[in-house]
Design goal:
Radius of gyration of chain A: 26 Å
CATH architecture of the largest domain in chain A: 3-Layer(aba) Sandwich
Order of helices and strands of chain B: HEEHEHHEHEHEHEHEHH
Distance between the termini of chain A: 22 Å
Number of strands of chain B: 8
Oligomer: heterodimer
Shape of chain B: globular
CATH superfamily of the largest domain in chain A: Pyruvate-ferredoxin oxidoreductase, PFOR, domain III
Radius of gyration of chain B: 20 Å
CATH architecture of chain B: 3-Layer(aba) Sandwich
CATH superfamily of chain B: Thiamin diphosphate (ThDP)-binding fold, Pyr/PP domains
Structural class of chain B: alpha/beta
Helix content of chain A: 25-40%
Mean pLDDT of chain B: 97
Strand order of the largest sheet of chain B: 2-1-3-4-6-5-8-7
Strand order of the largest sheet of chain A: 6-5-4-1-3-2-14-7
Strand content of chain B: 15-25%
Mean pLDDT of chain A: 95
Largest interface: A-B, 68 and 54 residues
Shape of chain A: globular
Number of helices of chain B: 10
Number of helices of chain A: 21
Distance between the termini of chain B: 60 Å
CATH class of the largest domain in chain A: Alpha Beta
Helix content of chain B: 25-40%
Strand content of chain A: 15-25%
Structural class of chain A: alpha/beta
Low-confidence stretches of chain A: 1-6
CATH topology of the largest domain in chain A: Pyruvate-ferredoxin Oxidoreductase, domain 3
CATH topology of chain B: Rossmann fold
Number of domains of chain B: 1
Chain lengths: 570, 284
C-alpha cells in the first residue's frame, strides 16, 4: 500500500535544534514549492523549548491534493546529530539522508553535502538552513529563478546584505541538489506540476483566524497558551487592517469574561486557548449559559493532564468542552477536519452563537493549527454576517419567553429599552428571582434551544456505501488521514463517516451506524471520548477503536496498518 | 433622569450602609444627567453586587470577582456608554484581585465603587481582605492574622488615574466624590466605607465616624508621594480624593481601533475587500 503512494509523493523532512530556524525554512519552502505548482502538505512537530532538542518539519510534495501526513521519509535533511535517533522510526531502506558530515557525524548511508563551511564563508552558520532549502529545491528540479525571487521578497525588509547572502546560500544548495539529481546520485520520481494560481497556502491557525474575521469577530481576548496563541497573534498582526480589538488578558478568567462583556454590548468576540487555559474559563462558559450570551471559544487541544506535552497534539479535551461549566445549559461543539472546514466552521460559529445565544466551541488541535497545505482560496460570498440583535422597545425584556425559546437579544444604548443580565436565576427582565416555578420555566427555555440547534446544524459526511460491512468513524483533524488510508485500502465494503459537528451529534448518525455490520472509531485520545459520547447519545457501541495518544498525529501508513488489523477481525 | 425602580424587594438588612450608597449613587447619576439607556452597571457577587438590580439602567451582574473584565470590554466596544462597577471588598479585592491590578494598569474609562465593610455579608460573616487584624469570625476563630489589603496604596503604586475613599456616614462627601469619579476620564476607584450591621460589630457607623477625617483643601492629590503617605494612614483614615495621576489616555483611547476612527466598534462592518486581498496574498 505504501509503495503505491510513493509513485505520487515525496516525503521530505528537515530537522534540527530549536532556534536553528526550521520554522522559517518550512514557510519559505512550502511557499516556493506551491509556486512551483506542486501539491504540498506540511506539518511540524517540535519540543517545548526555545533552544536545543529536535524539531522537525515534514513536507509532502505530491502530484495530487494531499491533506494527511506520511510516516515514511524519502529525503531527510538533518541539521544536527540528534535528528537520526529522533526520527529513526520513520526511516526506511530507501530513505535518503542528505546532510553535512561535520554536524551529522559519519552515519551510514549519508549523502554528504557540505553546508556548514560554505555557510560560514557566507558569513553565518545559520545560512546552512537556506542552503538546505536550496538543496531540496534543486533535487526537485524547481526553477532557481522562482526560488531567488521569493527569497528576495521575503528578506527584503532585512537589508540588501541579508537578501544577497540568502540568495547566495540558496543558489549554492540548489546547484548541489541539481548536480546530485543530474548525476543520478539522488533520484526521485518526477512530480507533475499543476496550475494552482487560485489556491492559497495556509495553515489551520490562519484559517481559524480569517474565518473569525469573516464571521464578524471584532474582538479577541486571550492569555497566551500553545497551541492556541497563533490565532490571537494572527489577529494582532492584522488588527489595523480589520479594526480588531486585541487584548492580552491577565488570565483566562478575565479573557472569557471580557468576551462576554463585548457580546453583551453588541460586538462579536472570541477567546483562543488550550486545555489548561480553558479549564480556567469554565466558570465563564457557565455564565454564558445562564446569561444566554453568545461566545466563541477556540480550544486548540494538546495532550494533558496539567501541562502535559505543551507543543504536541491530541483530541483529548472533548469531554472537557462537553462538560465544562456547572449547571445544565446547551452548547455547540464543532471540530474542523480540514483547512476549508476550519475557515467555514470558524465563520459559522459566530452566527450560530449569535442566533442561539449559546457558547460555541471550535475544537482544533496542535496538528491542525500547525498544518499547511494548498487549498482553494476561501469563499467569502455571501459577503455578510447574520444579524440577530434587535433595537429594544420601551418594555424590552432580555429573557422574554417566546415559542422557540429564543429571546430577541437587544444591546445597551440601542433602542428605548434596558438590557439586564444576571448570573443568578432571573426573571424575564434579568432580575434575581427565587420563584421556583419561574426557575423551571427558565431551565426549560434554555435547554429548549438545543432542539432548534439540532435542526440547524449540517449533516455528517459519509463517504462510501450507506449499507457497508465496515464503517470507520472519526472526527476533526483525524478525518482526512482516515480518508486517505481508507482510499488506499480500496475496499468496496468499507465506508468512512467524518464528523465535524461533535455536539449536538448529527441527527442521521444513528442510522449510518446501525446500517454497518462493524464499526470502528478512530480518535487521538486514550479513552475514545467521541465513542463514549455516541454510546451515551445513541446507544451504539463501537466494535473496535484505533486510539493514539503519544502526542503525534496519525499518519496514513499507520492507519492503513491499524485498519487492516481491524478488518482481519470478524 | 429617574433611576428609581419604584417598589422593589431589596435584599439588604435594615440599617445597612448600602442603602445610603444607593441613594447617593442614584441622585449623583440624576445630577450628571446620564441617560439610563446609556448607562451600564456591572457587578460580580455579594451584597454590593446586587446594586444593579436596584437602579433603573442596563446591567451586567456577572460572576464573583469578575466585574472588571466585562466592564472593561463593554466600555471598549461602545465608548458612548457610561460604565460603573458596584462591588464589595471581597468581590473586588479578594476573588477579583488580579483583575483589580490589571484593570488599573489598562485604565479603562470606568468607575469602580467598592463597598468596603471589612467583612463578608452574603456568605455570613467571614473575614474579607480588608478585615482588620484580630477581627474574630466563625471561620477566623482566633481572629484575623493576615495583613489587611490596602486598595488605595496598591492603586497609587499602579499610578491609577483616580483614587478616592469616602465613608457613607458622610453622604455629602460621598456625593461629591461619586460625581468626580464618574466625570473623571480613566479608571476611577472609590473605596467606600460602609457599615455591615449584621456581621461586623466592630467597624460600625459610629466607628467609621470616629476613625476617619476629611482631607482639607490644602491637600494636593497630584503629589504621588503624599498620596502614598495618605494611603497608608490608618488611624484615623483619611477621606477624599487621595490621588490623581498626570493625565493619560484611557484604555479605549489607546486601542488601535479608535486611533483614527471614533465610531464605536459595535457599529462597524467586516472589511471584506481587505479580507479578499489578504487571501489573494496567500496565493503566492
Amino acid at each position: 500500500m505504501t509503495a503505491s503512494s510513493a509513485v505520487h509523493d515525496i516525503s521530505i523532512v528537515l530537522a534540527g535544534e530549536a532556534g536553528q530556524g526550521i520554522q522559517t525554512i518550512e514557510q519559505l519552502l512550502t511557499r516556493i514549492l506551491k509556486l512551483a505548482g506542486f501539491h504540498i502538505h506540511a506539518t511540524k512537530e517540535y519540543m517545548s523549548r526555545v533552544r536545543g532538542g529536535t524539531n522537525s518539519t515534514s513536507i509532502r510534495v505530491s502530484s495530487r491534493p494531499v491533506q494527511a501526513p506520511l510516516r515514511r521519509i524519502d529525503l531527510l535533511v538533518p541539521l544536527d546529530d540528534k535528528v537520526i535517533p529522533h526520527l529513526q522510526y520513520r526511516l526506511t531502506e530507501e530513505t535518503i539522508i542528505a546532510g553535512d558530515r561535520e554536524v551529522v557525524g559519519d552515519i551510514p548511508r549519508l549523502q554528504h553535502v557540505p553546508l556548514m563551511q560554505p555557510a560560514r564563508e557566507i558569513g553565518n552558520e545559520m545560512y546552512a538552513n537556506t542552503m538546505a532549502l536550496g538543496l531540496i529545491l534543486g533535487l526537485l528540479a524547481v526553477d532557481a529563478g522562482v526560488m531567488e525571487q521569493d527569497l528576495g521578497s521575503r528578506f527584503a525588509g532585512k537589508g540588501e546584505e541579508v537578501v544577497a547572502n540568502n540568495i547566495r546560500a540558496a543558489r549554492l544548495g540548489h546547484d548541489r541538489g541539481r548536480e546530485l539529481r543530474e548525476s543520478g546520485a539522488i533520484r526521485f520520481a518526477e512530480i507533475a506540476a499543476h496550475d494552482n494560481g487560485n489556491e492559497i497556502m495556509v495553515n489551520g491557525t490562519e484559517a481559524i483566524a480569517m474565518g473569525a474575521i469573516a464571521g464578524g469577530c471584532q474582538c479577541i481576548t486571550s492569555y497566551p497558551m500553545t497551541p492556541g496563541t497563533g490565532v490571537i497573534t494572527f489577529m494582532a498582526q492584522h488588527q489595523h487592517d480589520f479594526g480588531l480589538l486585541v487584548e492580552q488578558a491577565e488570565d483566562e478568567i478575565a479573557a472569557i469574561n471580557m468576551a462576554l462583556g463585548a457580546w453583551y454590548a453588541g460586538s462579536r468576540a472570541m477567546v483562543t486557548t488550550s486545555g489548561g487555559g480553558f479549564a480556567l474559563m469554565t466558570e465563564g462558559v457557565s455564565l454564558a449559559g445562564m446569561l444566554e450570551m453568545p461566545v466563541v471559544i477556540h480550544l486548540a487541544q494538546r495532550p494533558g493532564p496539567a501541562t502535559g506535552l505543551p507543543t504536541r497534539t491530541e483530541q483529548g479535551d472533548l469531554d472537557l468542552a462537553l462538560y465544562a461549566g456547572h449547571g445544565e445549559f446547551p452548547r455547540i461543539i464543532l471540530a474542523p477536519a480540514s483547512l476549508q472546514g476550519a475557515f467555514a466552521i470558524s465563520r459559522q460559529a459566530f452566527d450560530l452563537a449569535d442566533q442561539y445565544q449559546v457558547p460555541v466551541f471550535i475544537l482544533t488541535d496542535q496538528y491542525l493549527v500547525d498544518t499547511y497545505y494548498n487549498t482553494a482560496a476561501f469563499t467569502l460570498e455571501p459577503r455578510q454576517t447574520g444579524r440577530f440583535t434587535v433595537e429594544t422597545a420601551e418594555d424590552y425584556r432580555r429573557h422574554r419567553f417566546t415559542p422557540d425559546n429564543i429571546s430577541p437579544r437587544g444591546i445597551p444604548g440601542r433602542g428605548q429599552g434596558l438590557v439586564g443580565v444576571d448570573s443568578d436565576e432571573h426573571d424575564e427582565e434579568g432580575h434575581i428571582t427565587e420563584d421556583l416555578e419561574l426557575r423551571v420555566k427558565m431551565v426549560d427555555k434554555r435547554l429548549g434551544k438545543l432542539a432548534r440547534i439540532k435542526e440547524a446544524l449540517p449533516a455528517a459526511s459519509l463517504e462510501g456505501p450507506e449499507h457497508c460491512r465496515w464503517l470507520v468513524v472519526s472526527w476533526g483533524s483525524t478525518c482526512p488521514i482516515v480518508r486517505e488510508a481508507v482510499a488506499l485500502l480500496g475496499r468496496a465494503d468499507l465506508a468512512q463517516l467524518a464528523i465535524q459537528q461533535v455536539y449536538p451529534l448529527p441527527a442521521e448518525l444513528h442510522r449510518y451506524l446501525a446500517a454497518a455490520e462493524q464499526t470502528i472509531m478512530v480518535e487521538s485520545n486514550a479513552t475514545s471520548q467521541l465513542g463514549r459520547l455516541i454510546l451515551r447519545e445513541t446507544g451504539h457501541r463501537f466494535h473496535q477503536a484505533i486510539l493514539k495518544y503519544n502526542g503525534l498525529s496519525f499518519t496514513v501508513e499507520e492507519l492503513v496498518d491499524e485498519l487492516q488489523k481491524c478488518l482481519s477481525v470478524s | 433622569m429617574n433611576f428609581d425602580m419604584g417598589k422593589i424587594d431589596i435584599a439588604w438588612c435594615p440599617g445597612c450602609g448600602n442603602y445610603g450608597i444607593l441613594t447617593v449613587l442614584k441622585s449623583t447619576l440624576a445630577e450628571l444627567e446620564i441617560n439610563p439607556r446609556d448607562l451600564v452597571l456591572v457587578s460580580g457577587i455579594g451584597q454590593a453586587a446586587k446594586t444593579p438590580h436596584y437602579v433603573r439602567a442596563n446591567f451586567f451582574n456577572g460572576l464573583h470577582g469578575r466585574a472588571l473584565p466585562p466592564a472593561t470590554a463593554i466600555k471598549a466596544v461602545n465608548p458612548q456608554l457610561t460604565v460603573i462597577v458596584t462591588s464589595g471588598d471581597g468581590d473586588m479585592y479578594g476573588e477579583g484581585g488580579n483583575h483589580f491590578i490589571h484593570t488599573i494598569r489598562r485604565n479603562p474609562d470606568i468607575t469602580a465603587i467598592v463597598y468596603n465593610n471589612m467583612v463578608y455579608g452574603l456568605t455570613k460573616g467571614q473575614a474579607s481582605p480588608t478585615s482588620q487584624p484580630g477581627f474574630v469570625t466563625p471561620l477566623q476563630v482566633d481572629g484575623v492574622s493576615a495583613e489587611p489589603f490596602n486598595p488605595l496604596a496598591v492603586a497609587v503604586a499602579l499610578n491609577a488615574s483616580f483614587v478616592a475613599r469616602t465613608s457613607i456616614h458622610d453622604m455629602e462627601l460621598t456625593r461629591r466624590i461619586f460625581g468626580q469619579a464618574i466625570r473623571h476620564k480613566g479608571f476611577a476607584l472609590v473605596d467606600t466605607f460602609t457599615p455591615c450591621v449584621s456581621f461586623n460589630k466592630t467597624n460600625t457607623r459610629q466607628w467609621y465616624k470616629e476613625h476617619t477625617y476629611v482631607l482639607d483643601d490644602h491637600y494636593d492629590p497630584r503629589n504621588r508621594t503624599a498620596a502614598f503617605q495618605k494611603a497608608v494612614e490608618t488611624g484615623p483614615w483619611p477621606l477624599g480624593v487621595i490621588y490623581t495621576s498626570p493625565p493619560k489616555p484611557s484604555f479605549e483611547e489607546n486601542l488601535p481601533v479608535y486611533k483614527s476612527d471614533r465610531q464605536p466598534l459595535i457599529d462597524r462592518q467586516v472589511q471584506w475587500d481587505r479580507l479578499a486581498a489578504l487571501l489573494d496574498g496567500m496565493k503566492g
